[in-house]
Amino acid sequence: MDYRTEIAVRIAVATGLDAETTNGLIEVPPQKELGDYAFPCFALSKTLRKAPAFIASELAADPGLGASWIEKVESVGPYLNFFLDRGHVASTVLTAILESGIHYGDGDEGKGKTVIVEFSSPNIAKPFHVGHAFTTVLGNSLSRIYSKLGYRVVRMNHLGDYGTQFGKLITAYRLWGDEQALRSAPIKELLRIYVKFHEAEKDDPSLGITARENFRRLEEGCPDERALWEKFRDMSLKEFSAVYEKMGVSFDNYNGESFYGDRIPEVVKLLNEKGILTESEGAQVVMLDEYGLPPCIIIKSDGTTIYASRDLAAAMYRYDTYGFYKNIYVVGLPQALHFKQVFAVLEKAGLPYAGDCVHVGFGLVKFKNMKFSTREGNIVVLDELLDESISKTREIIKSNALIRDTGMSDEGIEEVALKVGIGAVIYTYLRAGRERDIVFSWEEMLDFEGDSAPYLIYTYARTRSILRKASERGITDIEISKTDFLLLTSDDETGVVKLLAEIPDAVSRAAATNEPFMVARLAAQIARAFNRFYNNSAILSGTDIALRNARLALCEATCAGILICTDLLGIEVVEQM
To answer: Max alpha carbon distance in the chain (Å)?
Structure first.
């Protein structure tokens, strides 16, 4: 039951406002003493020609605002405060969660609609570093969120597998490549020769000319250049796949930039037909003065393509193939101008889906008090970061007396270290708004009592432990129909219930704003509220059997709630810790 909407309908009937406007005005009071929902009467003052406080007082006495699930309605100054019946809320929310399980919060708003989420998109022949992890984690979470709302999600990995850098790489490999080193550590060897190319080019500019010629030959499909490019691509994908598997990330499509190379003529033809492609200093461009943007280059003066031309081809292909409802690009904020130009060209060309293309930007990755060296100089390789997080988690677990006392096996410790360690990295990217810079700190990431994945996972494991102990005492399969949820009226119990009730809304808002942190924040609040309830309440030791069963049902619902949230974030939980 959506209490907020139901209250909005009652206020609309009593005031003459439409329910949608009323719903938008309803607030959640900052203090629980002021109720569960509050309606400010300022908007009614002008139409009713009365003081807001007087209007609130009149409405508080209106019997039409009452309901069996509303305990009372009070006016406090210009606000109309609604107090819900705690037992009714507990019964409604917990019944819905326990009946739906992990499907609680599922929606059908996306039925029949396709959302393309382009994310990760690492550059072939370059290390998969922590910057790529931001788009990978964010895109994976958004894909899960849209799927939960019923959308058909197509996960696209738009690989950076084309461009002039491959002309440089081919040139460098022919000059300095070590085949044995390439077979044993392909990314490391390709990076070595790529860096060497740039160093050598400073003293020998002719290398740049050779590189451009090699890329031109690659675009023309020359066998030798094509064979080297395919070799570099296949070796890189093999290493990337190992990282994706470790993080639990998958894709439906690996069409990289190269896939759209032979579709550029179609783009050029369309833009010419629309009369918007012009020549500028030998290059073919689309002028975007009316958008306040610089010209968008489609074909460079040497006849080769660039990112924009390939992204235009990709958007056209995706719409023709999938008829997308949304085409989302999860790419860093520094690329905002690029996407404004691409979307503007689509709009200027009169393509109807231009407004359905969305750039979901994110901030930078920084490090705080972290001594982390890699063999790649100033590049922090993601796989090494994940391994370090797993290792540090393992050390914390082994040094924890409470965990040692549980008699956890070495295999159990390894499973926990793996899931908690990787989860800690993932949560760090998602716990705040995506446009904020990420500052890594081992102390914060692996704090089992802070705003962290370890805290969420530990809370889930603690809750499962309570339910296991209940099962050991013969308390199994509590029947929803026989559970008296009306007994759950304490502040701590209500605190957990009300947060669990927010899951569907948090999922919807996360999709509407492309902000998974709304789910992450709610998960943290649920965990914090449950631990407060756990510390202040007798769950298994009480003498009131009906209350005990109701509290165990609350534990079960909390497990489902945390599991829903962590799964949407791409974080795995453990049953025991």
So the answer is: 87
Measured distance CA(446)–CA(389) in Å, rounded: 8
Helix, strand, coil percentages, rounded to 5, for the chain: 60, 10, 30
C-alpha to C-alpha distance for 249 and 121, rounded to whole angstroms: 13
Active-site hit among 32, 50, 111, 126: 126
Catalytic: 359? no
300 — alpha (psi -120 to 50), left (phi > 0) or beta? beta
As annotated, the residues of the chain forming the CATH 3.30.1360.70 domain(s) are 3-84
Domain with CATH 1.10.730.10 in the chain: 392-569
Question: What local confidence, expressed as pLDDT, does residue 287 receive?
Answer: 97
* Annotated catalytic residue 72: no
The residue to which tokens 């819905």 are assigned: 96
Which of 72, 111, 113, 129 is labelled catalytic?
Answer: 129
Q: Which residue has the tokens 């009300």?
A: 498
Query: Residue 78: which residues within 8 A CB-CB, separation 6 or more?
Result: 40, 41, 42, 51, 52, 53, 55, 56
Predicted confidence at residue 408, as pLDDT, reads 76
**434 touches 139 (CB < 8 A):** no
User: Is 132 a residue of the active site?
Assistant: yes
Residues with pLDDT less than 70, the chain? 368-378, 401-407, 476-477
pLDDT of residue 411: 87
279/302 Cα distance (integer angstroms): 13
The CATH T-level fold of domain 392-569 is Isoleucyl-tRNA Synthetase; Domain 1 (1.10.730)
Sign of the alpha-carbon dihedral angle for 310, 143, 323, 336: negative
Tokens of 375: 């063999």
CB-CB contact of 286 with 276 (8 Å): yes
Looking at domain 3-84, which CATH architecture does it have? Answer: 2-Layer Sandwich (3.30)
Give the pTM: 0.91
Tokens 């924890």 correspond to 400
CB 167 within 8 A of CB 219: no
d(CA 48, CA 59): 12
